[in-house]
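Quick one, tokens below:
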């Protein structure tokens, strides 16, 4: 995605590549989309913009291989 957008961070920062409800910038520690090559992002990374983390409701609802939480007597 980065290369297909001309290696332009601001072009993909506001996108949500993995559809988890968080922008790529938020997940990589740059919620304001101001990062520039050679600098450190404003904050810590909170996720991976290409992986829909199962902890989010958006991703949990998409998961088809989650086992139900039932108990057997």
């Amino acid at each position: 995605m980065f290369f297909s957008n001309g290696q332009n961070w601001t072009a993909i920062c506001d996108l949500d590549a993995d559809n988890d409800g968080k922008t790529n910038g938020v997940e990589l520690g740059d919620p304001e989309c101001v990062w520039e090559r050679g600098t450190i992002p404003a904050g810590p990374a909170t996720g991976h913009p290409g992986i829909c983390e199962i902890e989010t409701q958006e991703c949990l609802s998409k998961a088809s291989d989650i086992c139900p939480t039932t108990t057997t007597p």
